[in-house]
Design a protein that fits this description.
alpha+beta; eight-stranded antiparallel beta sheet; 17 strands; about 30% helix; binds ligand PPE
């Protein structure tokens, strides 16, 4: 169950957690056209800081732009509201969930006059794929559910309805005894997890899916920046499931998932089944950065 905090920001006001409710005829509840973000804040040396706030707010507005939802707040207003939400809840570490949705007013697929609501909640949220998974890696299975075609759902937009596909894949994986799924794109190449981007290391090259059928992950971008810093050879190119089976290392990235090693795919052990040196180096660097323990990239941290 959720770890409740005191207040949720709703359209410019703080409302007690339990009173942050909406009408059952809220449009997005029926049709799935809402845009959202997942952001983390971490307790570091200098107190609590929000990781890559600007990039997350920019992606939220980008998602809204793609699906033509007009969020009635400016970038600065949204950034400040997020900071305030962490502050009023005295949240030291946790997850922040802004969501813009079409509210109460009209029904039917085409709405013209309905309000667009924006809410921001924040609560303590530990590891997404388990503490053991973060340390030792997780077992995953390739899903029979295919990632959205690029002209079906818009993969660069973080849209609520797109996550039906993700949930089907995740349920299937868990029912089969795995911790997480990996989804292929409509051409059969490896795409991403239901809520994570994917990296592999093979023959000394770090590879990740290009930004076609996948979300433009902010953790993915963070890892690519770090890989450059550590002089790893990086390729953003499509790869097949058998190349994934042959990988020396594999890991997921995401705000919720952070950097989670993958130890096994479809019953095939990845490398020696333990997090490899590239994964470990990048994972450690990631946690140092989010906690403000590396001088570089302090611009990625917004102190609360
Ligand atoms: N792909 C998908 C489909 C995705 O949902 C996420 C984030 C990512 C990649 C990684 O993006 P980024 O967080 O910017 O590195 N998934 C969010 C939702 C997870 C959830 O269960 O809710 C997240 O990690 O916050």
């Amino acid at each position: 169950m959720l770890k409740e905090t005191d207040y949720i920001w709703m359209d410019g006001k703080f409302v007690p957690w339990k009173e942050a409710t909406v009408h059952v005829l809220t449009h997005t509840l029926h049709y799935g056209l809402g845009v959202f973000e997942g952001i983390r804040c971490y307790k570091g040396k200098t107190g609590t800081a929000i990781f890559r706030l600007k990039e997350h707010v920019s992606r939220l507005l980008g998602s809204a732009h793609i699906v033509q939802i007009k969020i009635p707040f400016t970038v600065t207003e949204i950034e400040n509201a997020i900071i305030e939400t962490v502050r009023v809840n005295k949240l030291e570490e946790g997850y922040i969930r802004p969501i813009a949705f079409i509210g109460y007013g009209e029904m039917g697929l085409y709405v013209k006059n309905s309000p667009v609501n924006l809410t921001i909640a924040a609560w303590p949220w530990g590891t997404y794929l388990g503490e053991d998974g973060l340390q030792n890696g997780i077992r995953v299975g390739i899903s029979s559910f295919v990632r959205h075609h690029v002209n079906s759902s818009m993969s660069h937009a973080k849209v609520t309805g797109s996550y039906v596909n993700s949930q089907l894949a995740k349920k299937e994986a868990i029912n089969a005894g795995y911790t997480e799924a990996i989804m292929l794109d409509t051409d059969g190449f490896v795409a991403e997890g239901p809520g994570e981007n994917l990296f592999i290391v093979r023959k000394g090259v770090l590879k990740t899916t290009p930004l076609t059928s996948v979300l433009e992950g902010i953790t993915r971008d963070t890892i690519l920046c770090l890989a450059k810093k550590y002089n790893f050879t990086v390729k953003e190119e499509r790869f097949t499931r058998d190349e994934l089976y042959l990988a020396d290392e594999a890991f997921f990235t995401g705000t919720a998932a952070e950097v989670t090693p993958i130890s096994e795919v479809d019953g095939r052990v990845i490398g020696n089944g333990k997090p490899g040196p590239v994964t470990k180096t990048l994972q450690q660097a990631f946690f140092e950065i989010v906690r403000g323990e590396q001088a570089e990239h302090s611009d990625w941290l917004t102190q609360v």
